[in-house]
Amino acid sequence: MSVLEEAIRLAVSAHAGQTDKANRPYILHPLQVMFAVERAYNQNPMPGYLTGVLVYTLEEMMIAGVLHDVSEDVPAYSLSYMLAVFGAKIHEILDGVTRRKTETYKEFILRACQNGGSRLIKLEDVNINLGRIHLLPVTEQSIKRRYEDAKRVLTTEFSLGESFKPLRASVR
User: Fold this and answer.
1) What's the CATH architecture for 3-154?
2) What pTM value is reported for the model?
3) Which residues of 65-89 are buried (b: 16+ CB within 10 A; e: fewer)?
4) Which residue ranges in the chain fall short of pLDDT 70?
5) What pLDDT is attached to residue 136?
């Protein structure tokens, strides 16, 4: 079994029985992210804000794409576990897309931008979530602005040393 197949099996197992806010099997989301990452990785020319992704192979990006929510959603599959099973490169990408309990959403998005692989996966995650807003109950649709702000940050070229404030202060 290839490492990608192993990652897909782990994601299926980790998300078994979970549903999203639209009551669909949750595993569909990480699979969508994986395939969106594959399409974006093969895009030519690649936008400047994504050039940092090229330090990773397509397979590494697809593995991280399908696993992007596992460590955050399933405590048994911690980032340490991912490091032991999938190695340092996958771990560093996953670390960038796993929100820490102490972070605001803005801090999390800015940290995801520090790694090209994490940035691409989070961007595709946000794009998919934006495309599914209409499936959410009306009470959940207010999250759209947060995703739009995150997308603006993720698609903007900027030096990490800059003071960058496109996320509204009210977005936490």
Assistant:
1) Orthogonal Bundle (1.10)
2) 0.88
3) bbbbbbbbebeebeeebbeeebeeb
4) 141, 158-172
5) 72
